[in-house]
Amino acid sequence: MKILNNPRISLLFLIFIFIIFSCKESKQNKIQSAFAGDGSKKWYCYSIDEDHSFYPYRVKEFFKDGRQIQYINNYTTKSLDTIPRSDMYNPEKWFIINDSVVSIDSERNPVSGYYHKSTSKILFYNKDTIILQGTKRSNYEGILILTRYNDKEKSNDK
To answer: What pLDDT was estimated at residue 51?
Structure first.
């Protein structure tokens, strides 16, 4: 322990520890990079509802700044068409609520005009798959499965 009594070595040791902890990525940054990457990422979105029915849903694109765009597959042109925005649903933004909850959907209350965020608990995520479970007033409903959309696969099918 005589080594740490030296002020220079103690200071260097503290700086080294500080650098290690400052380089560690926070959990919210990990979630943000899983959803959006460096700029944006597209995801196939599948829904499993409370009746255990499986619905192929849409393609969602999440951006690092919180924007999102929803697409639908056009089978005749084999391309993605942007879903127009409506007054009822406002899927323009996505939010990280805390370390395990995100909001990727919102619905307009016709009385107040306010958009209510629908929250989802993150069950699992990595670079190719995200599994979310919807929450509504502490009652878990439905599962959303997001799988990585690969633009290269679509261009090779033509």
So the answer is: 66
> Do 91 and 70 touch, CB atoms closer than 8 A?
yes
Residues ≥6 apart with Cβ < 8 Å to 16: none
Q: Pick the residue with more confidence: 35 or 158?
A: 35
Beta strands in the chain (DSSP E): 40-48, 54-63, 68-74, 79-82, 95-98, 101-108, 115-125, 129-136, 139-148
- Per cent of the chain over pLDDT 70 is 67
> Can you tell me the distance from the alpha carbon of 145 to that of 87, in angstroms, rounded to the nearest whole number?
26
Pairing of strands 95-98, 115-125: unpaired
pLDDT of 8 above 90: no
The torsion angles phi and psi of 4, rounded to 5 degrees, stand at -75, -10
Please give the pLDDT value at position 130: 93
pLDDT class for 129, splitting at 50, 70, 90?
Answer: very high
Cα torsion through 132, 133, 136, 141, rounded to 10: 140
Contact 56, 144 (CB under 8 A): no
Place of tokens 């220079």: 8
Residue (of 62, 58, 57, 56) closest to 42 by Cα position: 62
